Amino acid sequence: MEYIQKIFKNRKGGPIGDFRKSAVMILLIEEDDEIYILFEKRALHLRKQPGDISLPGGGIEEGESPMEAAVRETEEELNINKKEIEVIGEMDYFISPYNSIIFPFVAKLKTGNIHPNKDEVDHIFKVPLKFFLENNPIVHEVEIRPHMKDDFPYHLIQGGKNYKFSRRKYNQYFYIFKDYVIWGFTAQIIKRFVEVIRMN
Fold it and tell me: Which residues form a coiled coil (predicted)?
């Protein structure tokens, strides 16, 4: 008992499972009394999500805070100095159904001189914040259900193959702006960003 007490007395809890952690930046640009959000079209040669629309950001490295990761990735992808990024604050983080946690931050971009890193970014574009405030996304319901392999040990479970395994439904959102489709985790984050603005 003493050994267990020693282990747990000052222990801080964490998520159970192997989560991929990343951080992104909601970059705001102010031009002619209008606020815009900057988006990236991912490079077409990338292995993961080529051509998708995303926010600047990426994986959190060892010993790095989520905010440090968001700033570093934004610097690298947009080829800008971190002095040009004025972090305003943090947004609600997003836990995906696919074992990843995304930490979004809100920042003001203080330069218009952007030359994206072509290894990661095909090009950038901006969308007026007003567009998201005035237009709700298209919503489609998605169902996630377990898929068992042939060797799954049903005999170890009460009810066997008839066991009522949990299923989960969640909404997939789509914003269509001109020729761009903003969807997936990016749309989830932007939708929540807009909700926070509307609530206050």
Answer: none
Segments making up each domain of the chain, as ranges: 19-199
Best CA proximity match to 192, nearest among 50, 71, 55, 48: 55
Digit-by-digit pLDDT tens for the chain (200 residues) are: 999 999 999 999 888 888 999 999 999 999 999 999 999 999 999 988 899 999 999 999 999 999 999 999 999 999 999 999 999 999 999 998 888 999 999 999 998 889 999 999 999 999 999 999 999 999 999 998 899 999 999 999 999 999 999 988 889 999 999 999 999 999 999 999 999 999 98
